[in-house]
Amino acid sequence: MIRVAIANQKGGVGKTTTAINIATAMAATGWRVLLIDLDPQGNASTGIGVGTAERTTSSYDLLVDQAPLAECVMPTRIPGLDLVPATVDLSGAEVELVAVDNRTDRLRDALNGGAGAAYDVCFIDCPPSLGLLTLNALCAADTLLVPLQCEFFALEGLSQLLQTVERVQQRFNPNLGIVGVALTMFDRRNRLTDQVADDVRSCLGSLVFESVIPRNVRLSEAPSHGLPALVYDHTCTGSRAYMALARELISRLPERKKAA
Question: Which single residue of 37, 184, 186, 206 has CA 20 to 30 Å from 11?
Fold first, then answer.
């Protein structure tokens, strides 16, 4: 199972939207997909149609109580896509795990169990911070996907994230890589958007995905209906962009781990 963390410590850059729609796109192409919601806000769970009352077990149980992965997974309305939901209890997990010896390895240990073999790829939706929850995701992941909003302040956040990744590689997970940077909220009417995109591409080169995610009202509407945009309106520009991004992502994943 390939493990992909979707992280950026800056909020509002499209992490959850990217996680939901990339997971849906890959499930639609025949991959067996697991989505883990590690954000205490639980937006990925809500956006995929799992209400608060349905979340009997969650990523909190997985990390803090070390419940087996199989007990925390629940099906979604998307064929081929399962979810480990998040609840507000997760907000206290960082405090509760501080005194635990293996606090950075809780998620990695959970995914190493037999239940993980049922999936081809696991996406981990991280909170907008570089705390213990995100650190667990980076320690468990094979690679990192970084959504980057096309605004100036996002560039500063990117440099901080890259420094964090380097420290994680040195101390916890030497095999962690970066599969790519996805430009989100792209607005061609705004000159700054093009300038930021050019700066990122000149700095990171081929690491930046060719596909860009535009500002699109249908992407914003979809979560209120509990649906990924690819299900809510598969013809909108946002959905088409995520399908193109999923194709690019698949081409970058390790050959030996790709689904048949």
Answer: 206
Integer Cα distance of 148 and 253 in angstroms? 20
Name the residue ranges covered by the structural domains of the chain. 2-253
Give the whole-angstrom CA distance, residue 124 versus residue 127: 10
Q: Which residues contact 58 (CB under 8 A, 6 or more apart)?
A: 37, 72, 84, 85, 86, 87, 89, 90
Return the amino acid letter for 134: T
Predicted confidence (pLDDT) per residue in 6-58, tens digit? 998 888 888 999 999 999 999 999 999 999 999 999 999 999 999 988 999 99
Residue 185's φ and ψ, nearest 5 degrees, are 55, 45
Q: What angle do CA 229, 245, 190 make, to 5 degrees?
A: 80
Instruction: Phi first, then psi: give them for residue 191, nearest 5 degrees.
Output: -65, -35
244-253 pLDDT tens trace? 999 999 999 8
* pTM, full prediction: 0.92
CATH class, domain 2-253, is alpha beta
Residue whose C-alpha is closest to residue 93's, from 103, 105, 83: 103
